[in-house]
Amino acid sequence: MNETHASSPRAEPFSAAQAVAAGVDFSELRLGAQGLFWNEYRPADAACRIWHWQHNQARCLTPKGFSVSSRVYEYGGGAFCLSDDGLVFVNDADQQLYRQSVQGEMPTALTAGECRYGDLQFAAGQVLAVEEHQDRHRLVAIALADGSRQLLAEGADFYAAPTLSTDGQRLAWIEWDRPHQPWTATRLMVAERLANGLWSAPRCLAGNDTQEALQQPRFDASGRLYALTDRGGFWQPWGESADGLQPLPSAAADHAPAPWQLGGCSWLPLGGEAWLASWTEAGFGRLGLRRQDGTQQDLSGNYSRFRSLAMDQQFIYCIAASPVSPSAVIAIDRHSQQVQVLAGGVSPLPAEQISLPQTLNYPSGQDQAHGFFYPAMDNAASPPLVVFIHGGPTSACYPILDPRIQYWTQRGFAVADLNYRGSTGYGRAYRQALHLRWGEVDVQDACAVVEYLAHQGLIDRSRAFIRGGSAGGYTTLCALAFADVFRAGASLYGVSDPLGLTRTTHKFEGDYLDWLIGDPEQDAERYRARTPLLHAGNIRVPVIFFQGELDAVVVPEQTRDMLKALTDNGIAAQAHYYPDERHGFRKASNQAHALEQEWLFYRKVMQGLD
Asked: Which one of 98, 129, 550, 571 is least enclosed by Cβ atoms within 10 Å?
C-alpha cells in the first residue's frame, strides 16, 4: 500500500478489524441428493470455498489453493453446480472447470484453455455454462465424462441462466444484446431437443419488444416454463401458456434484485400457480410460499433479506439476514416454521448495541427517494452523518446487519444508507428514473436526505459526510463538486471520468454509460457537465480515495488523475492504493485498513471544524 499513515486510533470497543471479520458471506445455495451445499466467503483468507451440510454437520470441501469464483462479465456468479457424484466448480485462479466428489479429495481439471465459465447448471451428464472468450459469449455444454464441448447457442452479445426441463427435452435461457443491460431489456429463449440429440433453432418466448427485462427462467416438474418479468412494472413470476406468458398471482413488488451476477435464485415455481419466492416491500425482504389451493404462507419471520432459495419435502433453505444478524444459511421447517441456523448469523455486537434501520421515504425534487436511517449509538442530540451510496448504480442496499455501518454508529455517527432513484427493489419505473440522469437525480437524493434528516432534528447538517464505492464513488464526487452539502467524502474505486471509463471498461458495461448519461459524441456537453475530474476545482472539502491496483472496471489511473487535480488545487486529499485488490476489496487486512483510515480522516476534518 502506498499512503501516508495517520496516528493510531484510540482503543475502541468495536474495531475495524472486528467489523471486517464479521463480514462472512454466503452465496449459491445448492440442494441435491447428497445434501446441501453453499459457497462461503471469509475475509480472513479472501477465498470462496464450498461447504457441504449433511447429517447436521457442515464441512469444507474446497482444499487450500483453490477458490470458487467466476469472473464472467467481471462480476461472475453461478460458480458451481452439483453433479451426479459430486460437484463442478470454477476455480478463481485460472477460471477453468474442476470436478470434485463429496469425499473432498483433490479436484481434477475438466477444462483447459483461455475461456472463462459461469452460471453453471448440471443436467444429463453435462455442465451447462456461459462461456466467455475475450469479448465473445455463448452457451455451451461440457460433458462430465471426457470434457467434450457442445455449442448450445451463440450470436447474442450476452447469455444467462441456461436451464433444462426435467425430461431433458427443452432448453431455456436468457439473452440480450448491446446496448441493453440485463435489467433494461432481455429475451427469454427456448429450444427443443431433436431426435438426433441436437437442438432446434431457438425461438423467442418473450422480450422481443425490448420493453421488458426477464430473468431466472424455471421449469416445473411437468415441463411448463416460467420466468420473472417486469412487463407489469415489477419483477414478478409469469408462466407459459398458449397465449404466451401469463402473470401468476403475486405481490406488486420486485421478486428479484438486478442480476449483476449470474446464478441468482429468488424464486421457485412449484407447478400451476404455486411458488416459493422472496420479494421486497418498502425495502424489506419477504419470503412466502403460495400453495396450489391459493393460500399463502408467510415465512419471513424476523429476517429482512432472502437469497438462494431451495426446498425439499421438509425444509425451505435460503441465505437470510436480519437487522440484528448477518448473513446465514438457514433451514425453515415447512410445517412448524421453526428456523435452524446452519452456518453464520452470529452478531459481532450485543443486541442493545446494534443500531436498527429505520425506513426512509423522503422528498427529493418532485419525487420521493428511499433508504434506511441508522441512529448514532451515543445518544448525542445532533450527531454527524455518513451518507452511504451503493454501487451499481442499478443495485440496492438492504436493511440487514452490516458490521461496517455499525462501526460508524458505534463511533457516534448516524448513517443514511440510500436507495436513491435508479435503485432496484421499487419497480421498473423507479429503476428507470436514472436513465440519462446519472450524476443528477442520485446526487439530488444524496443532498436531499441531509436536509430531510436535519429538519427532523436527527443529525447535524454541518457535519455531513458522503462515501461510495464504484458508481457510488462517482455520485460521491459529483455531490462534492456540484453541491455544498458535505464536509468531506470518500471514494472507493470510484468513477471520476465517465468518458475515460467508456474507453477502458469491459464489454458487460460497454454501453452502460450511454444509458446513464448519453452518447459520448452526441451528448459530449452533458458528459463534460457531469465529469468530476473536469470540475475538480469546484471541490473545496477534503477527499480520501481507496483504489485496487488490479481493478479492471475502474482503472487506477482514474483515481490518480482525480487525486492530482485536487492536490494541485490545494485540497487536503489523500489516497490509499492496494496492489493485490481488484474492483472491490476482498482481503480482510485491506478492508479493515480502509475503514479505519476513512474514520480517522473524518475525525480529523471534524476536529478542524470545532
From this structure: 550
pLDDT surpassing 60 at residue 8 = no
Cα–Cα separations (whole angstroms), residue 333 to 7, 35, 53, 211, 268: 51, 16, 16, 39, 17
- Rounded percentage of the chain residues whose pLDDT exceeds 90: 87
Residue with C-alpha cell 404462507? Answer: 297
According to DSSP H, which parts of 382-541 are helical?
403-409, 428-432, 441-455, 471-482, 498-504, 512-516, 524-529
Angstrom distance (rounded) from CA 63 to CA 40: 13
At residue 12, the pLDDT reads: 55
Of 404, 326, 323, which Cα lies nearest the Cα of 16?
404
Distances (CA, A) of 197 to 128, 200, 277: 15, 10, 34
Does an H or E element contain 595, and which? Answer: helix 588-609
Task: Check: CB of residue 241 under 8 Å from CB of residue 226.
Answer: no
Q: Summarize pLDDT for 516-534 with one digit per residue, the tens.
A: 999 999 999 999 999 999 9
User: Which residues of the chain form CATH 3.40.50.1820?
Assistant: 357-609
CATH 2.120.10.30 residue window(s) in the chain = 27-155
Q: What is the pLDDT of residue 552?
A: 79
The residue-averaged pLDDT of 554-560 equals 92
Task: Give the Å distances, CA to CA, from 254 to 234, 423, 425.
Answer: 5, 11, 5
Mean pLDDT calculated for residue range 486-512 = 90
Give ∠ CA 219-221-223 in degrees, rounded to 5.
Answer: 50
Determine the residue type at 537.
G
Q: Hey, what's the cell of 304?
A: 429482512
329 with 319: CB under 8 angstroms?
yes
Q: Report the CATH superfamily, name and number, of domain 27-155.
A: TolB, C-terminal domain (2.120.10.30)
Rounded-to-integer distance, Cα 39 and Cα 74, Å: 18
State the architecture of 357-609 in CATH terms: 3-Layer(aba) Sandwich (3.40)
Give 363's pLDDT tier (boundaries 50, 70, 90): very high
394 has a pLDDT exceeding 80:
yes
Q: How far apart are CA 90 and CA 71, in angstroms?
A: 9
- Tell me how far apart the alpha carbons of residues 229 and 248 are, in angstroms, rounded to a whole number: 11
- CA–CA dist 170, 174 (Å, integer): 14
H or E element: which one contains 604?
Answer: helix 588-609
d(CA 35, CA 82): 10
Q: Find the mean pLDDT for residues 45-58.
A: 91
DSSP-assigned states of every residue in 532-581: GGGGGGG--S-EEEEEETT-SSS-HHHHHHHHHHHHHTT--EEEEEETT-
Interaxial angle between packed helices 471-482 and 441-455, expressed in degrees from 0 to 180 and rounded to the nearest 10: 70
Comparing 147-161, 203-217, 252-266, 274-288, the range with the smallest average pLDDT is: 203-217
Considering the chain, what percentage of its residues have pLDDT values greater than 70?
98
Q: Does pLDDT of 504 surpass 80?
A: no
> Based on the number of CB atoms within 10 Å of its own CB, is 555 exposed (0-12), middle (13-18) or buried (19 or more)?
buried
Quick one: three-class SS letters along 68-103?
A: ECCCCCCCCECCEEECCCEEEEEECCCCCEEEEECC
* CB-CB neighbours of 145 under 10 Å: 8
